[in-house]
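Study this protein:
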Amino acid sequence: MKALAICGSPRKEGNTEILLDRCLETLKPEGLDTELLRLAELSVAPCTACGGCGRRQDKTCVVVDDDFNDVFVKMQEADIIIVGSPVYFGSATPETMALLDRAGYVSRANGHLLSRKLGGPVAVARRAGHNFTYAQLLYWFTINDMVVAGSTYWNVAIGARKGEVLEDEEGLETVTRFAENLAWLAKKLCD
């Protein structure tokens, strides 16, 4: 089984990435292949809602001059998808939503390609906005017919300066338990 963590932060090796690394480090000993994908290293334009993805034989987006289709292939190959974003004015980053909007359109236009994949969101903020961002990302998972694992709290953490999230003990424990639950759920479904 494969787990893909998508980091929507434009800051490499920042707090969001630290949380996603924590998730992947928890999944790896459970026998899952893991991959971290940084949107900061890619170019994904926003969806234009042209509807072309529903008319293509190859079930891809008609926009081919960016990195979306390569990322979407990785999403389809993954059994577990975790999406992390810092909070920008109470919501996920534009980079995150550009990817998720397009992935949702392509998936739904082609028979729900992401249906029943496991996963869930992770959000990190300096002070507030976690719940809005977490909910925003959670809505994306559920409207795409995906199975979301819970934890002992919402998958949110506090941190502004790079690495500051490591001081949020409860946040780290929460995302670790979330990843443990994903691994547990994956094993149950494979039995």
